[in-house]
Amino acid sequence: MIRRLRHLRADQQGTTLVEFAFVAPVFLLMLMGIFDLGHGIYIRAVLDGALQQAGRNSGLESGPENLAKIDQYVSDQVLALVPGGEMEFDRKNYWEFGDVGEAEDFIDANDNGVYDDDECFYDANDNDLWDDRGKAGQGSAKDVVLYTATVNYDHLFPLWRFLGGTQDTSITASTTLRNQPFGSQPGRKVEYMCP
Fold this sequence. Notes:
Strand order of the largest sheet: 3-1-4-5
Helix content: 25-40%
Oligomer: single chain
Strand content: 15-25%
């Protein structure tokens, strides 16, 4: 019996299998993470490319009548990579490029550098709220348009669930382009608002 135990102790067969059992879970998680990261990068690249093309098509004179088709083009390109995903689109138009993403001007009555609810402001987008200067929609000739698309989808692999995270994620891309000069750019009414 002792000789058998010594022989079993010296036996090296099967050690590779035991070592692999320790390494395999970590290796598989790493592989899933790399593939999931690559998939996300690929989705972003396709979304950026489709959005750039769609933005150029939106800025044409025929663009405003074809916005649904243009959005559908982006959806078709992206959702082919993420079955079950959902797309969201947003368009805001501005008078010029310098207005994109800028807050409306306000009168800083208490000199704190921050807009307070009781302060007056210049309503550049005609919505009676102090917010971004952009108006909703494609706008008209020569307007600058911020076109944003977001895809919401589940990760390709269940890696995030194993790590205690959430399975859903989203990728957002945007482009800023000027509508073609197919007509005169209408003026914008900026109204002085006081609460």
